[in-house]
């Protein structure tokens, strides 16, 4: 997959009254490399409509587009990849369906990270580093020590995720992360573009 540093996930609950596409375009203008559609509440037709709109937007800007969970939606809109949790379809099954599209896997301990790497994941999520209200079924924060463990033991790209804000990202980078993934810290910001630029300033240091 293309090199990336800043990965933004949609979270419409964090910008009530603002259009999702407009918010994600601001994030793109701020420099994000990847956008993921993550939507646990919409029905299929609505999800598909959002995926189509994001596909169009990301294609226009040359940004990678990933769909969370819904492999069928990802295939239908020709997303660049999918992101799966530990309880979703097994990676080898997903691989059969998506071919050479990107597959990302959420991991919460080293054992899961090593397994995902062996199974052929293109990248893994590493978290939640800090406490987050974004993911409801989330495990307890794993802390920066998990980031350190992954940095020392995993060769595929990994993104640190969970509760990352401008105020604590330095700790995550100090632990060895070179890529971060953010929901509320980006889309819930009053200055989405400026926040992305500030994250990138730190990532590029
Ligand atoms: N996955 P925020 S934590 C979607 O640890 C997600 O796998 C996580 O949202 C994981 O940046 C998380 O608002 C939520 O804390 C991240």
CA-CA gap between termini: 22 Å
Q: What is the count of DSSP helices, taking H or I runs of 4+ residues? A: 9
Strand content: 15-25%
* Backbone shape: globular
CATH topology: TIM Barrel
User: What portion of residues is helical?
Assistant: 40-55%
- Element order, helices and strands? EHEHEHEHEHEHEHEHH
Largest sheet: 8 strands, parallel, barrel
Find the CATH superfamily: Aldolase class I
Low-confidence stretches: none
- Give the total of domains: 1
Please state the CA-atom Rg, rounded to the nearest Å: 16 Å
Mean pLDDT value? 97
CATH architecture grouping: Alpha-Beta Barrel
Sheet with the most strands: spatial strand order:
1-2-3-4-5-6-7-8
For the record, the CATH class is Alpha Beta
**Count the strands?**
8
How does the helix and strand content classify structurally?
alpha/beta
The unique ligands bound to this protein are: ligand 3NM
List the topology elements:
Layout: E1 6-9, H1 20-29, E2 34-37, H2 44-61, E3 64-68, H3 71-76, E4 81-84, H4 91-98, E5 102-107, H5 110-119, E6 123-126, H6 143-153, E7 158-161, H7 169-174, E8 180-182, H8 184-187, H9 192-203
The structure holds ligand 3NM.
The site of ligand 3NM has 17 residues, from helix 8.
Written description of the protein model:
- Keywords: Magnesium, Metal-binding, Thiamine biosynthesis, Transferase.
- Mg(2+) binds at residues 69, 88.
- With 205 residues, the chain is α/β, with parallel strands linked by helices.
- It has a single domain, classed as Aldolase class I (TIM Barrel, Alpha-Beta Barrel), CATH 3.20.20.70.
- It is built from nine helices and eight strands.
- It has an eight-stranded parallel β-barrel, surrounded by six helices.
- Helix 7 links the parallel strand 7 (158-161) and strand 8.
- Helix 1 packs parallel to helix 2 (44-61).
- It is globular.
- The protein starts with 5 loop residues before the first strand and ends with a helix.
- It binds ligand 3NM.
- Ligand 3NM is lined by residues 9, 106, 125, 127-128, 132, 134-135, 138, 161-164, 182-185.
